[in-house]
Give the backbone structure.
Amino acid sequence: MEYPLLFGAYPQLKDGVPWVSLGDFPTPVRRLERLGREVGLDHLYVKRDDLSSIHYGGNKVRKLEFLLADAQRKQADVLFTIGAVGSNHALATTIHSQRLGMRAILFLIDQPMARYARKNMLLDHCYHARMVSTSILAMPFRIIRHYLANARLSPLRFPYYIPVGGSSPLGCLGYVNAAFELKKQVEEGLLPEPDYLFVPLGTMGTGSGLCLGCRLVGLKTEVIGVRVTERWMCNPRKMASLVNRTCAYLRRFAPDVPRVRVSAEEMTFLEEYFGREYARFTEQGMEAVSMMKNLEGIQIEGTYTGKTLAGTLDYSRRNGWQDKAILFWNTYNSVDLSARAGEVDYRKLPQAFHRYFEMPLQELDAAMMRRENDVRKTTA
């Protein structure tokens, strides 16, 4: 078992910070030659965190290595977490917690419907999550009720709460460590030191960890976040606070960690690629999804990574960064679990989730499905 590079830099962290190995690291980096040539960016790279685990990849694995280790340390056997009904975070928590002998209870709220969301709900069921339909207003009451019910069943083992997106100072350590990994890949000559690193900003744990980590390892890289959730959840003030709290958490266990303090004004946010609402696809985002698949053979999606890649390409071109080293951080999962999801009848899910399989898909997803079906017919 190879410990995180962060622990190698600050050995005192091993004694206090919980960690368990879940992922396959380092994840690869490679140049996006065809896509870069298509859009006129000479040094466009991707960090393949979609390959972070053979079980279920994406950005959540790095966070869960710390969060689930803390749950283990506290002898929890049940986890609570929050997400939209199609949440990748909820599914990642379900799959990886099951590997460690824990069970997830998911509190899921509404979102615009897409195929990936339906698949994730079916997989939540496959991996034995308990799915609770709720709203933002009702959520505290639902959580309290389930907490008390579990406490009665297991009075010596309290449910462990993982915040939405896994974005706490502890969860952020996964991406502080990812910056150390990136630094090593730069030193090994696998890519030039990025001038700009683009990442989705939902609950901001990934971006906050990278922002702090790049400062700790001395990379000149500017982290640019593309906002993909509503502003009340995702804004520069909250991100700066998360960066600062994560640094303070590290220094509790390793006082030799440099004191990093950032302000909201130092956070670079791109807001214009969000669209109308969370999980509502945009034409620009779906064009980026198609380009990435057709030119590079990499699957991304319309809620997070499609909007972020759209922002990466458009913002870089508008700023004349043709000669700059640009890194797109792919936070999606590329493990194909479609066959397993296809074995489940949605009517086996709790009744409250049936409507998501009976309502129409949002139009941009439906249009993409029609195009994919047409391609399959012409190549059959």
Remarks:
- The chain has a mean pLDDT of 96.
